[in-house]
Write a structure and sequence with these properties.
By secondary structure, the chain is of the alpha/beta class. The protein has one domain (about 5-255): Metal-dependent hydrolases (TIM Barrel), CATH 3.20.20. It has 10 helices and 8 strands. β7, α8 (about 185-195) and β8 form a beta-alpha-beta unit. The chain is globular and about 45 Å long. The protein starts with a strand and ends with a helix.
């Protein structure tokens, strides 16, 4: 079986120093491609370097809502330049997070929509973080007419009822280790509702370690643990693990295109 990790942060200092062994472990587990998302501008070149060093790593550049106050004045110019220099790259991680203290709602929305404009201008896909801001996200997607190349809703935490609306706007729904948590009731309901052609899985490494007794000693999540997410998704949807591997790989390849 082969898997694609639809959202991870290989540049994160918590795992970067051990990346050689982490990547070898992932390849051995069947994970052959990785959508490696930036959090802020200083990540961009580091991720590009990782993508050149390891097979299957797709670089994504963007500004996470946590870090919008650290952006440079010319971040939009720099983002366009990065994407033109890296033709396989996507945009991310960007999004909306209305649980942040002093969260600058209007500023988050403005920056997200700039990412969307650049995505459609350069025909790139977008990897999105969204917490407690689903109606605003839908409004922003509608404003730009959706994202032609596709939108990945990372670690989807919205309701099952929102899925048809987001589907029409080009959304793919990615599930992380949070779906393995016993107290997560909303996640499985949404996972069951997602159309097969828009289902993805991810680790969000080094965060969201899956709930499994065999992983209790681990401090940080890593892409090799994607199989735990896939297994839980297969249980929720009542299909084989092999089918989840095949479907989610096919869907990710539709968005990304060729794997470097």
């Amino acid at each position: 079986m082969k898997f694609i990790d639809a959202h991870c942060h290989l540049q994160d200092e918590r795992i970067f120093s051990k990346l050689d062994q982490i990547m070898q472990k992932a390849y051995s587990a069947g994970v052959f491609a990785f959508l490696c998302c930036a959090a802020e501008e200083e990540d961009w070149e580091k991720i590009a370097s990782i993508s050149r060093r390891y097979h299957g790593v797709i670089a994504l550049a963007g500004i996470h809502p946590y870090y919008i106050q650290r952006r440079t004045n010319n971040w939009e110019i720099r983002l366009r330049e990065f994407l033109l220099k890296n033709p396989c790259a996507g945009i991310g991680e960007t999004g909306l997070d209305y649980l942040i203290d002093n969260c600058a709602l209007l500023e988050q929305k403005m920056i997200l929509e700039k990412h969307f404009e650049i995505a459609n201008e350069l025909n790139r896909f977008v990897n999105i973080h969204c917490r407690k801001a689903w109606e605003v996200l839908i409004e922003s997607l509608q404003k730009v007419g959706g994202i032609r190349r596709g939108v990945i809703l990372h670690s989807y935490s919205g309701s099952a009822e929102l899925i048809p609306v987001l589907y029409e706007l080009g959304a793919y729904f990615s599930f992380s280790g949070s779906i393995t948590r016993p107290n997560n009731k909303k996640g499985p309901l949404a996972c069951k509702r997602v159309p097969t052609d828009r289902l993805l899985i991810e680790t969000d490494s080094p965060d969201i370690l899956p709930s499994d007794h065999s992983l209790r000693a681990m401090q940080n999540n890593e892409p090799a643990n994607l199989v735990y997410v896939a297994r839980r998704v297969s249980e929720v949807r009542g299909v084989s693990l092999e089918e989840i591997a095949e479907v989610t790989t096919k869907n990710a390849e539709k968005i990304v295109g060729s794997i470097p």
